Amino acid sequence: MWLSKGVKKPIFSLHLFLTLCLPISSVWATEPSPARQTELLNLLKNDCGACHGLTLQGGMGPALLPESLAGKPDELLVTTILEGRKGAAMPPWKPFMTRDEVVWLVGVLRGGKR
Fold this sequence. Notes:
Cytochrome Bc1 Complex, Chain D, domain 2; globular; single chain; 5 helices
């Protein structure tokens, strides 16, 4: 589609941009400090483990093992952790951790460092 004076209208929409860039956003995430990593791992074991099982094999909440998360996009997991799930026992964790910290935790859950 052409605008006035022969300027081409960009076809690249914001939606398309976000769709293409969000999956790689975890690459740009800042890794938490070693002390904060320890805090996050304790939170994962104790707070998340209270519902997802102390070994994360499931409980009131679903299992959080790498094979259980396979096929689920990182962005879905990050959003679920930050925003919680309405109508479920999953609370929003946004008040307690940053997006970068959640991206790091998703990497841990997928079998990354611990």
